[in-house]
Amino acid sequence: MAKKAWYSITAKAQGEKKTVEIRIYDEIGFWGTTAEAFAVELDAAAAEAAEIVVSLNSPGGDVFDAFAIYNALRRYAGKVTTRVDGVAASAASLIAMAGDQLVMPENTQLMIHNAWVITGGTAEDLRKTADMMDKIRDGVVAAYVRKSGIDADKIIEMMDVTTWMSALEAQALGFCDLIEEPVRLQMSDSAAAVLQKHKNLPDDVK
Known about the structure:
Largest sheet: 8 strands, mixed
Oligomer: single chain
Shape: globular
Distance between the termini: 28 Å
Helix content: 25-40%
Number of strands: 8
Radius of gyration: 17 Å
Strand content: 15-25%
Structural class: alpha/beta
Number of helices: 7
């Protein structure tokens, strides 16, 4: 499969202020482009920037790549603003938590759920995979708790049932900091197909 970026990173100057704009509008980690490449490109673009703005319209993707991006954004010394431009589901919602401020237009959606994996092997292999999945969940829960202030047990309950949140619901729960006027965007066909696999898909997302 040929490599294709599921993100774009651009640096823009506004007067003396430099802002880095990141768009993640597809399945995270897909198409053969890794979070390592993302981090290298981000470091180069953000070296002299005062702010990073991350716009998300993604069904999720590789949780390890999402963690790498989340940590890279959290390490950044300047201001980080994350935006949900359409849907930030699954691993994309983890990246949304990296912002000092999370902005959601009123017609957007945030979704959290338990990570899932396709695996095989012996009983011992499966036990190791289950242990790994528990550790992944612990890390994701910690990110949601840090952003929202919600108790970890409540977050786990929300993840267990796959919880979709409108901008108003996300704000009420402490995930969203600012609600903006609605926007209408279109997702790539491949990303839209991934969304259909998630449980409890709201009608407006469909």
